[in-house]
């Protein structure tokens, strides 16, 4: 059996009849409608991409501020000092009230 | 590149989306003919063609105008068809047992006298379509371009983005793959 000959005959048959190049009615309008909708979607896509890009620097800034706040509070004094300062601030109006009596 | 194409492309690049429509109208028949070589269902063909034009619109900025727009578009079409073949590789459940009576007659006639020109080209084309469905995506692409469209190795290299030696290697493997399928089909009595 000659497979090469069979292959050649089959391919020749396929060659002799190219596929149709017919186009469905108003196909270009369908493509244009899709492109237009993709353009609109793209604006939102751009906004989304920008937001995602901004997320990383924001997290970075937040972490830097957290570290900076922790460092500054630890260098200023212990949590005990903070508690005293808070108490003084809260009690300050009451102390002023006592003085006026 | 035709002057018309250049003007339309420049207008699209400036933001005039509507200028893309004449380009679609001009080239859609060629893209349909190409897509029909790789997909049999009309809905799949339409999806491929639509994807080609959407990709063309999105990538128009990368078109440098050194080659005709049609060549650039055909490259995009061939690559989209190849992506389609790869994506649908596992969904295809075509078996050679689907061979019809006409196709069996064609094969019988060929086996009785291989040197004779067998009648019914339609049956032969259907056999080719079924054999091609069984091929791997690279084999199908390369045989379509090389044997059916009769393109040169250099042209195929430009269309697919594969190097010339890779095209030659894949063509060799594709022919072997096709012969293997044909042998199997004959050995099993077309079933």
General description of the model:
Helices cover 84% and strands 0% of the residues of chain A. Chain A is an all-alpha fold and 101 residues long. Chain A has a domain at 50-74. The radius of gyration of chain A is 38 Å and the shape is elongated. The termini of chain A are far apart. The mean pLDDT of chain A is 84. The longest helix of chain B is centred in the C-terminal third of the chain and has 24 residues, at 164-187. Chain B has two domains: 1-88, RNA polymerase sigma factor, region 2, helix turn helix motif (Rna Polymerase Sigma Factor, Chain: A); 94-191, Winged helix-like DNA-binding domain superfamily/Winged helix DNA-binding domain (Arc Repressor Mutant, subunit A, Orthogonal Bundle), CATH 1.10.10.10. The chains are: A mainly alpha (101), B mainly alpha (191).
The separation of the N and C termini of chain A measures 122 Å
Structural class of chain A: mainly alpha
Report the average pLDDT across residues of chain B.
87
Give the overall silhouette of chain B: elongated
By CATH, the superfamily of the largest domain in chain B comes out as: Winged helix-like DNA-binding domain superfamily/Winged helix DNA-binding domain
Report the sheet with the most strands of chain B, covering strand number, pairing sense and barrel closure.
Answer: none
Query: Tell me, what's the shape of chain A?
Result: elongated
H/E order of the elements of chain A? HHH
Helix content of chain B: 55-70%
Indicate the multimeric state. heterodimer
- The count of DSSP E runs of length 2 or more, i.e. the number of strands of chain B, is 0
Q: Biggest interface, which chains?
A: A-B, 33 and 43 residues
Overall number of structural domains of chain B: 2
C-alpha Rg of chain B, in Å? 19 Å
SS-based class of chain B: mainly alpha
Amino- and carboxy-terminal Cα gap of chain B: 51 Å
**What is the CATH topology classification name of the largest domain in chain B?**
Arc Repressor Mutant, subunit A
Order of SSEs of chain B, N→C? HHHHHHHHH
Radius of gyration of chain A: 38 Å
Biggest sheet of chain A, in brief?
A: none
